[in-house]
Fold these 2 entries.
Entry 1:
Amino acid sequence: MNTDRSRWTLAPLTLALFVATSAHAGQDIDDRIQASQSAIQSFAAALQGEMMAGMEAGGPVGAIDVCRERAPEIAAEISAETGWEVGRTSLKLRNPDNAPDEWERAILEDFDSRRAEGTPAAELHHHEIVEDGDEKTFRFMRAIPTAGLCLTCHGEVGGDIQHALERLYPEDQATGYSEGDVRGAFTIIQRM
Ligand code: HEC
């Protein structure tokens, strides 16, 4: 292949991309939303994979240890990969490290009221550019629906599971959920 020729074919392409991007002001935001969704997808898939493996190896009580150890690690790994802050939060916490900030709390409350009005939890998400002094961030949240599988540790728990949770999380609030409830949300902060 002739290198001269490929240089000449690339130049108009680069220009075309530049024009296309600047012509659509919303493009950047759409990209950020898509990239956030895909980071969340990786987070959810990794967590679910490890939790299922934990269940198979050590039953629900063993899986509690997996969630406890791996959930924060996976969040840290994805944050390092993307350069964003990626995590999970909720209005009723198990791990106090996951506490929402003021902005996240308001969005979680909004998700709960939209859910109560009939929107399925799986459809709830929100993005916003938040300016605070000199700092401008793109923030994204996506609700986490409570599935049947989650009720083992977030529904009406008893027995060994209850004991393990009481020991590890003395202030646990994250029980009593029903299928379809908003359990919490994935949350992403991208500095702009
Ligand atoms: C085997 C028990 C177990 C199962 C099953 C389980 N979780 Fe959890 N969950 C935990 C533990 C333990 C934590 C605390 C993790 C930590 O310390 O960061 C947690 C934390 C969370 C959090 C973070 C917010 C908080 O309260 O700290 C969310 C959100 C969450 N779980 C959602 C789910 C969803 C959705 C499912 C079902 C797909 C699920 N969990 C299934 C044990 C479980």
Note: Helices lie at 3-23, 27-82, 102-116, 151-154, 159-168.
Entry 2:
Amino acid sequence: MANVRTMLGDTELVSLDAGQFPYDGGAMFGGVPKVIWGNLTSVDEFNRIILTLSPLLIRVGSRNIVVDVGYGSRHTKKDLQIWGFDPAVTVVTALEEEGLKPADIDTVILTHLHADHAAGSTSDGADGVEPTFPDARYIVNETEWEAANNPDARSAAAYRPDDFVPLERAGLLELIGDSHELGDGVSVGRTGGHTAGHMAVYIETDAGKAVYPADLIPTRHHVRVPYIAGIDLFPLDVIESKRKMLTQAVAEDWVVILDHDVAGNIGRIVQDAKGRFAFRD
Ligand SMILES: [Zn+2]
């Protein structure tokens, strides 16, 4: 894999290659039977499909904004056994390919705090766990922060406080409400669905609009409204937020950048005569 990019006016959008991992196909496709989803993507002997870790880099003016940071470099032995990460590929190595150092990043937006999106926020340093991006402010939804610090029994395994508590300690954390403007055409909005505080990121330019739906639409297959991951905490909210987002994406021809799709992460949305949505590279 490699980074892939598109320009929208003067704003450069780069889907970063921060690695990939196998994940249970049933958990990703929820109520969709395997006889159907098994034809859409390849499946290994453990019923797993490959997901990419694809954070988004937004380069606008002199700013470098990173949306989500992948799994990072703080893997336990167990992580490496279960997930088969390549420890040599991270958001930091992906940014290096763009000629950027961690200190060049001014803003990190975390769509939610699950480890595959937020663990790269921090790294092992000389004095313990420290922020990976020392000069960035880290934007997190306040509902997500609350849920991640006091997880329910179902969510506890997906959140690792070591990933994000050091951000608060370092004074780099900025908690926000349901919608927030970051300037330069970049904004975030709470979608809920996957988690209560899950956010999507919107980029508006003179040349059109783009969205990073994160785990509201993790792969191209999830563009179909009833395709809802089994791990989504609020499935009916997924349907509502997704339908609204996709309807706007078709009407205004948005660029859509996916976070976990192994077949390609940048495309647009089309809708057929029956109203069904599809992703086109
Ligand atoms: Zn995810």
Note: The chain has one domain: 4-280.
